[in-house]
Amino acid sequence: MTARKKLTYGEAITEIEEILQQMEDEELDVDELAGKVKRVSELVRFCRNKLKNTEEEVEKVLKEMEEE
């Protein structure tokens, strides 16, 4: 069994952009649309969490630097 590659923020944004472009170009049929909307929702949630975690890490590092 192969391990699934961990998704990066950049990859998530790229996938969101690709799905949105398919929607704008009307390349998706109704059957695909619900699945793609769900996937975009998951990707947006992933990106928000990644940004929040990164912000917390940066704040922690800055606080540690101030204490030195």
UniProtKB/TrEMBL annotation:
It holds the Pfam family Exonuc_VII_S. One of its GO terms (biological process) is DNA catabolic process. GO terms for molecular function: exodeoxyribonuclease VII activity. Its EC number is 3.1.11.6. Keywords: Coiled coil, Cytoplasm, Exonuclease, Hydrolase, Nuclease. The keyword Hydrolase applies. One of its GO terms (cellular component) is cytoplasm. It is found in: Cytoplasm. It catalyses: Exonucleolytic cleavage in either 5'- to 3'- or 3'- to 5'-direction to yield nucleoside 5'-phosphates. It comes from the Bacteria. InterPro entries: Exonuc_VII_S, Exonuc_VII_ssu_sf. Residues 9-68 form a coiled coil. Gene3D superfamilies: Exonuclease VII, small subunit. NCBIfam families: xseB. Belongs to the XseB family. Heterooligomer composed of large and small subunits. Bidirectionally degrades single-stranded DNA into large acid-insoluble oligonucleotides, which are then degraded further into small acid-soluble oligonucleotides. This is Exodeoxyribonuclease 7 small subunit. It comes from Thermophagus xiamenensis. The gene is xseB.
